[in-house]
């Protein structure tokens, strides 16, 4: 692997323990690792990337996504529905997908993230119609080149048993556990610098049994992998938990072994003070999805209270069917604005939102080798050109990333490999991918 010198960065945002920022600084990369940070580093690199008029940050981190939903953006009948109604509209559409749709939608969703400066993404895939497998999305991520945390999701309780999904999309629990073990054994890499780490992720309290939740937790801890699910997303979610389980979602999670530093929950919009204290005490993480929460009218998550209590919080774009785009800086801006709406104009600064989008996400995903620009950390680095329209006139180019732009990254490195160069994705031909994405989406839409 060639050595790389990022030269003369106007502003470097490290996200190191004391949140240092440097001016006119260089970064030297060798074998996918940051080897040196300093002024006037030697010019003996195989490649020099000049970063004048640029802000350099850690790569952004996405802690919650449903990549397959990239094929169902802006579906008419689901545009104005709450969570449960939205899902019931989309489930029949998703049931028509197969391996090609899952592979292509994952490629497209990860390309969309890469172009927006994201170097590491999780994915929550919980339905497998027509022969689809988690392998399809993993193969897609390997072609795009992003660091990937896929989760083997599942649904086991269909409509006939009181669940939300149609019976055609649920699986037998023994089959779920067997395939969960298979994908962990085949793909999970526990080593520093891992490009793929697999987690287990039964979909939600309203689509799986308590037995599956318990057994998945036991299996994950036996395999030493992380756990992920949706929790406390909206008022409907809380009402379901109280009616079906006689407790709030936090108690439900604790009773089933779903708290700890190896667990992160998506949304958590409706956590109360006791549940926030539980998550802080147990080091349970949260994937905050502000744009999706707004789109579905779910509410404003208590992120300020969570962070003040010590809960690890990262950002998630959620599925493109409930957000319609995959852009972590947009999530950071929305997170900041919502906390200000709820708690006052000084509730969250732009730099804190950027921290949540980088280091915060890495912490939620258990990656102490990523999320900051420090010697010895993996070289996941985003370079933002602030000389253009978006940031023009800004006095603080770091805050400008969250407040006004630029919208897309100029260069993106993942494990020291350049995935985006001068605003162009290097790993696949994006126009051809867009054409295929549109063709598949049209084919599916014509069935409805």
Walk me through what this model shows:
This protein is α/β, with parallel strands linked by helices. It folds into 2 domains: 4-59 and 374-425, Urease, subunit C, domain 1 (Roll), CATH 2.30.40; 60-364, TIM Barrel, CATH 3.20.20. It contains 14 helices and 17 strands. The chain has helices at 83-94, 99-115, 134-144, 173-187, 210-223, 235-245, 249-255, 273-282, 290-295, 303-309, 328-343, 350-364, 397-403, 430-445; strands at 4-13, 21-30, 33-38, 47-50, 54-58, 60-62, 118-125, 147-154, 199-202, 227-231, 263-267, 285-288, 313-315, 381-385, 411-414, 417-421, 424-425. The strands form 3 sheets. Strands 1, 2, 3, 4, 5, 14, 15, 16 and 17 form a 9-stranded mixed sheet that branches. Helix 4 (173-187) links the parallel strand 8 (147-154) and strand 9. Helix 4 (173-187) runs parallel beside helix 5 (210-223). The radius of gyration is 21 Å and the shape is globular. The termini are far apart.
Radius of gyration: 21 Å
List how many beta strands DSSP finds: 17
Structural class label? alpha/beta
How many H/I helices?
A: 14
Number of domains: 2
The pLDDT mean sits at 96
What's the CATH class of the largest domain, please? Alpha Beta
Write out the CATH superfamily name of the largest domain: Metal-dependent hydrolases
C-alpha geometry: globular
Q: CATH topology of the largest domain, anyone?
A: TIM Barrel
Report the major sheet: 9 strands, mixed
Separation of the first and last Cα atoms:
48 Å
């Amino acid at each position: 692997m060639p050595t790389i010198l990022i030269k003369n960065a106007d502003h470097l945002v490290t996200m190191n323990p004391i949140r240092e920022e440097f001016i006119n600084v260089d970064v030297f990369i060798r074998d996918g690792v940051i080897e040196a940070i300093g002024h006037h580093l030697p010019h003996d690199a195989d490649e020099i990337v000049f970063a004048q008029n640029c802000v350099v940050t850690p790569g952004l981190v996405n802690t919650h996504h449903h990549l397959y939903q990239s094929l169902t953006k802006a579906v008419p009948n689901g545009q104005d529905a709450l969570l449960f109604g939205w899902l019931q509209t989309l489930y029949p559409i998703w049931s028509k997908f197969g391996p090609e749709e899952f592979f292509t939608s994952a490629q497209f969703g990860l390309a969309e993230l890469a172009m927006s400066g994201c170097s590491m993404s999780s994915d929550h895939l919980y339905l497998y119609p027509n022969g689809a497998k988690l392998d399809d999305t993993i193969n897609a991520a390997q072609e795009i080149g992003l660091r990937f945390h896929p989760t083997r999701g599942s649904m086991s309780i269909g409509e006939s048993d009181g669940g939300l999904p149609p019976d055609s999309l649920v699986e037998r629990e023994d089959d779920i556990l067997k395939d969960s073990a298979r994908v962990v054994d085949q793909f999970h890499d526990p080593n520093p610098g891992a490009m793929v780490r697999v987690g287990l992720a039964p979909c939600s309290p309203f689509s799986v049994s308590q037995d599956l939740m318990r057994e998945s937790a036991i299996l994950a801890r036996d395999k030493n992998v992380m756990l992920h699910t949706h929790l406390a997303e909206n008022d409907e979610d809380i009402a379901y938990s109280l009616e079906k389980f006689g407790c709030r979602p936090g108690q439900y999670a604790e009773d089933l072994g779903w708290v700890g530093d190896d667990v992160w929950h998506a949304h958590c919009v409706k956590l109360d003070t006791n549940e926030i204290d539980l998550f802080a005490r147990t080091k349970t993480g949260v994937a905050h999805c502000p744009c999706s929460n707004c789109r579905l009218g779910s509410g404003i998550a208590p992120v300020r209270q969570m962070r003040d209590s010590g809960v690890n919080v990262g950002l998630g774009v959620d599925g493109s069917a409930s957000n319609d785009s995959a852009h972590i800086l947009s999530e950071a801006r929305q997170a900041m604005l919502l906390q200000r709406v709820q708690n006052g104009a000084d509730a969250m600064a732009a730099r804190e939102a950027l921290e949540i989008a980088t280091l915060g996400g890495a912490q939620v995903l258990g990656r102490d080798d990523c999320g900051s620009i420090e010697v010895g950390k993996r070289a996941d680095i985003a370079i933002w050109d602030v000389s253009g329209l978006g940031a023009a006139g800004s006095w603080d180019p770091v805050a400008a990333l969250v407040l006004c732009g630029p919208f897309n990254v100029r260069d993106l490195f993942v494990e020291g490999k350049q995935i985006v160069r001068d605003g162009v994705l290097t790993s696949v031909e994006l126009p051809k991918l867009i054409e295929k994405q549109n063709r598949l989406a049209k084919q599916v839409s014509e069935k409805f």
